[in-house]
Amino acid sequence: MRYLEDFRVGDVTEFGPVEVTEQEIVDFASRYDPQPFHVDPEAARETMYGGLIASGWHTTALFMGMFVRAVLRDSASLGSPGVEEIRWLAPVRPGDHLHARSTILDVRDSSTDPHRGTVFTLNEVLNQDDVVVMTLKARGFFAKRPATPT
Questions:
Q1: Per-domain residue ranges for the chain?
Q2: Hey, what CATH class is 4-143 in?
Q3: Which spans in the chain are helix H?
Q4: Which of 40, 44, 94, 106 is deepest in the core (most CB within 10 A)?
């Protein structure tokens, strides 16, 4: 179990990969972002993208799944107050294999709760060619290690 005290500025965690399929792109976008370049391969060929691409929100969800499995599942995560910034830098296409890198930028004790703190991260999602397709700056709450009885 990783507690707030176990996160250090400068630490880098790499995780993934996850494969992106055409069916997942269409299924996700059909429900959450039904723009033609996300749901219709033929219409997508006529756009500036030249083919079907994943919704940025799909890429973000894929990142979150990888991040939970690699970092949050075995930590004292208490959720998140939000994301500072998301940038979708390059299209994600069917057949891409994405992996991610999370760098800790800052760790702070809470000013209101002595039992927790906040970890600030810069997260990058890269494709199989190591092209950065998305960046996300976020903060997460983590519990401090419980005091051991004396």
A1: 4-143
A2: alpha beta
A3: 22-32, 36-39, 41-45, 56-67
A4: 44
